[in-house]
Amino acid sequence: MTTNRPYDPYDSFKKYSELWEKQINDFIYLWTNNSEFVKMSKAGAETQSRYLEAFRKNQEALAGVLNIPTKNDLANVATLTIQTEEKIESLEEQIWDLQDSMKTQSKEIETVVEVSKEIIKLTKQLKTELVKTKKELADSKNIQSELQEMKLELSKLNTFKDEFEILKNLIEKDKREEPILAGAGSAK
Amino acid sequence: MAVETPNLFPPLDFEKEMKRWKHVFQVLNEPEPKIGHTPRNEVWKKNKSVLWHYPAKQKKYAIPLFFVYSLFNKPYILDIAPKASVIEGLTNRGYEVYLLDWGEPGFEDKNIGLDTYIQKYLRTAVKRALRHSGAEEITLVGYCLGGTIASIYASIAEEPIKNLIVATVPIDFSTIVGPDKWAEGLKDGTINVDRFIDVFGVVPPAYVEGMFRAVSAPIYFSNYTMLLNRAHDSRYVDKWRRMNKWTTDQVPFAGEAFRQLSNDLFKENKLVKGELMIGDKNANLKNIKANMLVVSSSNDNLVLEPQSLPIMDLISSEDKTYKLVEAGHVSLALTGLFAVVVDEWAASRSNPL
């Protein structure tokens, strides 16, 4: 009968308690698991409900006379707060939506701005190029006018040449006529 | 005459006994253990509900997890103790975690029904979590009744829900735990909560606890003898205290939601039949197309496997997995095992970064 295990009185106590618990619960189960018990509990619950209902009604009536708030009044006030909270919440959600749409809009605007920046850059480039071409155009005009002048001068030169040619011809004629004239003179 | 004298008084481990009683007095006198140690911040608050965000230690997944807990009990079971916490386990594994704490409904919340909870609280919370995380999709994780709520929500959701994980979830209420005559009474209308709720507004926590006690074990004291038996082990005592705090820390239940739960789900089993209406929408599980993981625990004595299993045939998801885990209804979360289960499945479905 000797054991070297130290004496633990709680071990057996625990085992017994578990046994008792199970037995009591099984007994209660058997005792309550029938339609009579269910009907009885229903009747009990109904009576209790009716009694409580009447009691609450009287309380309300009495509180009305005494002019003091009841739990119901407080609950009504609390419900108002909850309603306000809900409204604020829906407002917050609307603000979110607005924020979101603002964000997408601002993003769109940013892209538009970027595009327009590029356009501005391009136009600036175009402008400088335009100025350049204008300058070139002016230059070419100058050249043209100069050319025209030159042409004119050239044409003038041409007439001069013609005149010169005529003169040359005349001189040559003169030269040819002179010996005849000399010959005629000697013959005289 | 050398008779061995029987050892009538076996040796008593004095030190162990001292420790045992010290711990027992600690349990009796010291304040309750602090719970909720994983760092978190509040994202959104509405009425009594709070949406918490637990940042990942090192973010590894793009899609955050969104926990929907049951309306019974408090959600801190998911973050009960360091190293055993489900949420801590998941943040350590690189998930961003959101948790919707429903809060404790007061008398003024008696008109909150399942539709209000789903449309005005859960939906908004999911939206907020999506906005807060900047993610494009989200994984919903529902635990116990939270799984039922998450499934109902997923069937009418417009938000991008990529994955849906439900654990120990009651979907089919044709089998209910507890005495069968009670279930019969509930189905044929003998037990009717309407009047009770009209009078009470919200179901008081004591009644909620009583209801759970009634279906599992009306007389329950073996937890105390168990504590006495193992009180010399400080680690066990710590675990016991946390568990005890959680089990006794019941929340009231909003009346309208309880009425719907009792009439639409328990009594008429509308979710399985596809007849449940949430607001003006028909919450038909057929509409769920998200990747689905259903986790059941084998030793669950509150939500039985046949209650969870039918969801597999009702949804129209292509990627669906059913997993039976060796655990109990609460111990799945209590031991942190749930984090491992979630991670195994969700890792490949959460867009790793």
Fold and architecture overview:
The complex is a heterodimer of chains A (188) and B (353). Chain A has a domain at 14-68. Chain A is 92% helix and 0% strand. Chain A has helices spanning 9-32, 35-66, 71-187. With 353 residues, chain B is α/β, with parallel strands linked by helices. Chain B has one domain: Rossmann fold (3-Layer(aba) Sandwich), CATH 3.40.50.1820. In chain B, strand 7 (277-278) and strand 8 (281-282) form a beta hairpin. The chains are: A mainly alpha (188), B alpha/beta (353). The interface between A and B is large, with 45 and 47 residues.
Strand and helix map with partners:
The complex is a heterodimer of chains A (about 190) and B (about 350).
Chain A: H1 9-32, H2 35-66, H3 71-187
Chain B: H1 14-29, E1 41-46, E2 49-54, E3 65-68, H2 86-92, E4 97-101, H3 114-133, E5 138-143, H4 145-156, E6 161-167, H5 180-187, H6 194-200, H7 205-216, H8 222-230, H9 234-248, H10 255-267, H11 270-273, E7 277-278, E8 281-282, E9 291-297, H12 305-308, H13 311-314, E10 320-325, H14 331-334, H15 337-346
Parallel strand pairs in B: 3-4, 3-5, 5-6, 6-9, 9-10
Antiparallel strand pairs in B: 1-2, 2-4, 7-8
Helix pairs in contact in B: 2-15, 3-4, 6-10
Characteristic key phrases:
heterodimer, A: 188 residues, mainly alpha, 3 helices, B: 353 residues, alpha/beta, Rossmann fold, eight-stranded mixed β-sheet, 15 helices, 41% helix
Please tell me how large the radius of gyration of chain A is.
63 Å
Main beta sheet of chain A: strand number and arrangement?
Answer: none
**Could you name the CATH topology of chain B?**
Rossmann fold
Task: Please give the count of helices of chain B.
Answer: 15
How would you sum up the major sheet of chain B? 8 strands, mixed
- Structural class of the secondary elements of chain B? alpha/beta
List unreliable stretches of 5+ residues of chain A. none
The radius of gyration over CA of chain B amounts to 22 Å
Strand order of the largest sheet of chain B: 1-2-4-3-5-6-9-10
User: What is the name of the CATH architecture of chain B?
Assistant: 3-Layer(aba) Sandwich
The helix count of chain A comes to 3
What's the count of strands of chain B?
10
